[in-house]
Specification:
This protein has about 210 residues and is mainly α. It has one domain: Orthogonal Bundle (Tetracycline Repressor, domain 2), CATH 1.10.357.10. The protein is built from ten helices and no strands. It has helices at about 1-20, 20-30, 35-40, 45-65, 70-90, 95-105, 110-135, 145-165, 170-185, 190-210. α2 (about 20-30) packs across α3 and α4 (about 45-65) packs parallel to α7 (about 110-135). The longest helix is centred in the middle third of the chain and has 24 residues, at about 110-135. It starts with a helix and ends with a helix.
Length: about 210
């Protein structure tokens, strides 16, 4: 099964969902197509498992490395950076597969199971946003699902640009810039005021020393 998933990931990344075949996966492994069907009922189930395993790897890295003692903004920047880095670490193939399936409609899409995978993948961000609202760092007058879309929307556009143009991005700088752009819209209004007050106090202290 591990070999089928490994080669399946390669083929889906290269071909996309529509053009990938279980026949090619079997041929690359040197086994019969019937062997693939012993473990998976078809291409759709195999593709879903490939994406689920990839998502689990990314979620695992986010949860293992998330600096939970840091500010919500710093944790958000870590999540954005990890998402961009790992979505592109193996090239753009799997990234294109996931983004295109998210937009697809009709009988050839992966279906409701893919929606559930997306929900599971976005759960760590939803948890961070919920904690930020509870602590008062993030605005509480906007539903969490809209805050989630506010974060994932720009990341999706950045990834599509890489896929379509082949132009690479600096994930460190991109994560910093994106969070700097989003933060004024995400943070609670009183947090901005507190930040301005703290800055004024720092400036007054600096002037007093001179």
């Amino acid at each position: 099964m591990r070999d089928i998933l490994r080669v399946g990931r390669e083929v889906f990344a290269e071909r996309g969902f529509e053009r990938a075949t279980t026949t090619e996966i079997a041929e690359r492994l040197g086994v019969s197509e019937a062997t693939v069907f012993t473990y998976f009922r078809g291409k759709r189930e195999l593709c879903m498992r490939v994406i689920a395993d990839w998502y689990d790897e990314i979620i695992g890295e986010i949860e293992a490395g998330l600096p939970r003692e840091a500010s919500v903004r710093e944790q958000l920047e870590f999540m954005v950076h990890t998402h961009l880095r790992l979505f592109l670490i193996q090239g753009t193939g799997l990234c294109a597969l996931v983004l295109s399936e998210g937009r697809r409609s009709g009988d050839d899409k992966l279906g409701d199971g893919f929606v559930e995978l997306q929900r599971r993948y976005t759960a760590p961000l939803m948890d961070l946003l919920a904690r930020g609202q509870a602590s008062g760092e993030l605005r509480a007058d906007i539903p969490l699902r809209l805050l989630r879309s506010l974060v994932f929307g720009p990341m999706e556009h950045m990834l599509w640009e890489v896929i379509l143009t082949g132009r690479q991005i600096d994930t460190d700088a991109s994560a910093r810039d994106l969070v700097a752009l989003l933060w004024p819209a995400l943070q609670a209004p009183e947090q901005e005021l507190l930040g301005l007050r703290a800055l004024r106090q720092e400036l007054e202290a600096a002037l007093a020393r001179h």
